[in-house]
Structure formats: structure tokens, C-alpha cells
Amino acid sequence: MSMLDLLAKQHASMMPEEYKHRSYDEMKQRVLEIKRAFGSRLFIPGHHYQKDEVIQFADATGDSLQLAQIAADNQEAEYIVFCGVHFMAETADMLSGKNQHVLLPDMRAGCSMADMANMKQTDIAWEQLTHLFGETIVPLTYVNSTADIKAFVGKHGGATVTSSNAKKVLEWAFTQKDRILFLPDQHLGRNTAFELGIPLEQMAVWDQIEEKLITDQPIDDIKVILWKGHCSVHEKFTVKNIEEIRKRDRDIQILVHPECTHEVVRASDLAGSTKFIIDTINQAPAKSKWAIGTEMNLVKRLIDGHPDKHIESLNPDMCPCLTMNRIDLPHLLWSLESIEKGEPVGFIKVDEDTRKDALLALNKMLTIK
Q: I need a surface site. Which of 77, 217, 336, 355 has the fewest CB within 10 A?
């Protein structure tokens, strides 16, 4: 592709300036009109971390894989406008039918964690790690990864994992090989392996930038190789945050996501997936007190939805995830009006070879009970 073609493609994916000047009420009304007009031909999944101005129009809310599965089950929808990030829309495309179109309202919506593992880095890592450990490694990847990484894992006999089922998938993986390579989030991998009884001394970190294994233990003792990736939001919750809150109020319970560091998870009262966090708060008694370590849009929604409980962010200075929050009401409206005009923008399409191998990893996960 020439530079002129690249610039033209980039310009075509940019929202026209006029949308920035429309009133909130006008945009809300237009979205509702288009939803009514298209009916079942249009489906809008919304991730838990999205802004309220977008999530109010979601036909379904959930985590990334849950939304992709819901979208795949919806055979009527011609257009799936995914309010989330790029890797989520890729998964929805891989699971949906050939007659369905997956669109991302803002192509800049991404995940810094997913971007911490690319195929060039992964190929180099696999070559060096198999040289060190032989054919003793099975790769696993968090669903928060690109389609290419999922395809690599599927091609090498591995599976995807979610924060909800990571323990079960790791247990399965150890029945396949002696060692696990866990991409791209080191914290979820470390916390899950530790929960299974694997000591930290038997875990090493693969540094994809330095292209080397970081460990001071004998190589033969290593059971889990953790990719040096992380969630830029969850890594900002600290043990100091926990100590300060407990010093202020001993009755507050600390509830965090397993993408937080090992030290934070160990210092908390409870740790679990986004669904676990939501379910825990829904089932908590009135007047209970909670400090939650996860993305701010979700925390604020939990606060608003549970006025009978005291809920706050574990880190009061935390900001919403910048890349998760790219999609706003103007971008959503632009996406819907482009469909209305018969000129859809923001297509997400995974090539057939990548799709085939990535589905091996996704489907393997879904068969693990």
C-alpha cells in the first residue's frame, strides 16, 4: 500500500468534525431512531468498561468473550457495532457468521496489554524457549490479545483463557505439557498459577524487549513462563492504597481484579474476574463497605447502582482506561449513520487462516470444564 493509499485509508476512518458539535440530546435521539429503524438487523454489544453515554444503548453488556459469544448467537444481526476495543471486535468477527459485519466505532480503541505481544516478538520467544526447554511447553493466551496471538496459541496446541476460567485452563494445560507460556498478562498468569500451588520460584518472566528469560532459579525448575505484559490500569493499584484505606476504615473489604499485581491480590480480601466483582457487589448486604480495584467506569456504575452500600475505588486518583474509553457518543452515532447511508466504516475482518487457528484456541477453552 502506498503512502497516499495509507493516508486515504486513515482519513476515511476518522470521524467528521461535525459530530463533535452536535448536542447530546440530538445525538441520543438519532441513535434511538436508527436502532428502531434497523431493529434486529443491528446489534450493539457494550463492554463493562465503556462510558455511560455509550453503554445506555447496548443491547447486551458483559466482558469481552461473553459479548462475542452473545453476538455470535445473534444470527439475525446484519451489523454488529462493537462498543469495546479492537481485540474484542476481532473475536466477535471470528465467531459470527459470514453474512454478518462487525464494526468498531473508533478504530483507535485498543488495549495496551494486547499490544505488548506481537507476532515477531512471539516467534522469537518461542524459538528461544523451545531451544531451552524442548517440546515441554504449551502456550496459553488471555483473551485480551490479538487474533494473531490467539492463532499462534491454537496452532501450537494451546488455548485461550479468561479471568473467570484461567484456573481451569491452567489445570488442563499441565495435563498436556510440563510447562506453560502465558501471554500477554504476567499478573493474571502469576496469580492463577500461585492459586494452583505453584511457588513464585518456579515462575520466570520472558522479557520480549530484551529477548531473554528473567530468572535466578535453575532452568529445570521453571513451570510457568510469564510474558512481560500488564494492564496499565490494574497495575496502578498498590499495596499502599490498601494500607491507607484500611487505616482509615477497618470495615472496608478490598475487592480486586486478578490483573492487579501479585502483592495487591495477596493483600486484598477478594480477587476475581469482572463478573465475580459485579456478582459479589450484587450479593453483598446493605451497608457493607467496599474498595474496588478495577476500571473506573465499572466502579462508578457499581456505585450508582448500589446506593445502599459504600463503594469506592481502591485508588481515588485512578482515571478510566484511555484506550478502552475511545468510543464515545459521537463515534457511535457516526458508525450508525454510516450504516444508515449504506457506507459503513470501521470494518473488523480477520483473515481466514488466522481465524481458523485462533478458533482452535478459543474452542479448546470452551471445551474445558
A: 217
Nearest-angstrom CA–CA distance, 22 and 316 = 32
Under 8 Å CB-to-CB from 131, ≥6 apart: which residues? none
CATH code of the domain containing 256:
3.40.50.10800
Residues 35 and 24 in one domain: yes
Are 257 and 298 contained in the same domain?
yes
The owner of cell 450484587 is 282
Point out the domain boundary residue: 210, 231, 252: 231
Shared domain for 247 and 213, answered yes or no, is no
Alpha helices by DSSP H, 115-261: 119-133, 147-155, 166-176, 186-195, 239-248
Band (21; pLDDT cuts 50, 70, 90): very high
Residue 165 lies in a domain: yes
Burial of residue 73, with CB atoms counted within 10 A of its CB: 0-12 exposed, 13-18 middle, 19 or more buried: exposed
- Residues 222, 141, single domain; the answer is yes
Q: How far is residue 62's CA from residue 73's CA, in Å, rounded to a whole number? A: 14
- 126 lies in the same domain as 226: yes
Whether the CB-CB separation of 159 and 151 falls below 8 Å is answered with: no
pLDDT, tens digit (0-9, with 9 covering 90-100), for 45-91 = 998 888 899 999 999 998 877 887 887 788 889 999 999 999 999 99
- On the question of a cis peptide bond just before residue 184, with omega within 30 degrees of 0, the verdict is yes
Rounded Cα gap, residues 335 and 31, in angstroms: 10
pLDDT class of 318 with cuts at 50, 70, 90: confident
Query: Residue 85's domain spans which residues?
Result: 3-110+324-350
Query: Average of pLDDT values for 159-165?
Result: 93
Do 158 and 67 share a structural domain? no
Does the pLDDT of residue 149 top 80, yes or no? yes
Bridge partners, residue 293, by sequence = 256
Q: Which helix (H) or strand (E) holds 121?
A: helix 119-133
How many domains are contained in the chain? Answer: 3
